[in-house]
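Alcohol dehydrogenase, zinc-binding
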Amino acid sequence: MRQILVNRFGGPEVLELDKAPDLVPGPGQVVVGISAADIIFLDTLLRSGAGKDYFPLRPPYVPGHGGAGLVTAVGDGVDPAWTGRRVAVGTSGGGYAEQVAVAVEELTPIPDGLGLAEAAALLHDGPTAVNITDAAEIKEGARVLVTAAAGGTGLLVVQLARAAGARVIAAARGARKLELAREVGAEEAFDYTEAGWIDRVRAATGGDGVDVVLDGAGGPLGGEAFEAVAHGGRFVSYGTSSGFAQVDPDTARQRGIRTISLMDLNGSAAGKTEELVGRALALAADGRLRPVIGQTFPLEQAADAHAAITARDALGKTLLLL
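Predicted structure tokens:
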């Protein structure tokens, strides 16, 4: 089978096409032939060598954390009826490959009416978006600001907030991304690279600010977005592409703002991954959630995919098609 190998840490160019023996499932395992591999921002960070204190990853390794495809073989103790089924599967690594071997319990069947690429696009961003909007407790008529609104997760969050009855304001970089956020349901959209964008957000709410911020940007932009939260509102920050949003806890307390961090979100999702994936896939199959696949690349162009993400050129979700 073909796979992508990282032989050394570095830029996108270190992603190299490699060949390996076909996989054989062990007891309780299945082999999934991957049709679409998911790419998440964490993949680009790990490839660069970042996060060594948290992820004990050393080259050579196969990057990636799952995708969607068909079960091609089953091991001892696994119901043969799994063979040929369409599934989404998350992995701890090794996702940029034509095959992955996983425990059968880690499979999520893909509902009828949902394509393999769409399922792969929802594998990580879907449960993240569902968990975020659950934690935010969005009510009918709430004013919600979504930052990094044109990313894979951001576009899903915009849709889920709108479905909950919120008035959604999107923040992103550039005209193309702002228009995409409007297409999926944002009423207003502002470029957060322009000076005074927070003032425009406040003006769009009559000067009070928003009830909820769903921050997919993190870093300094996340800190700016916090200033848009109205007294007694909620600030949910899950973005880390520029580091964690810096929020002063004393200021949050004084303004009665409840803050929910990425660590809080991870804690609430613990043990519920398959459930959240299933909910996201079901919402998409029912037409209530639409993943936006902005660009796809063949497996051998994984370096180009990473370069697009790193340059912030990617719209929506980026996938590898095998």
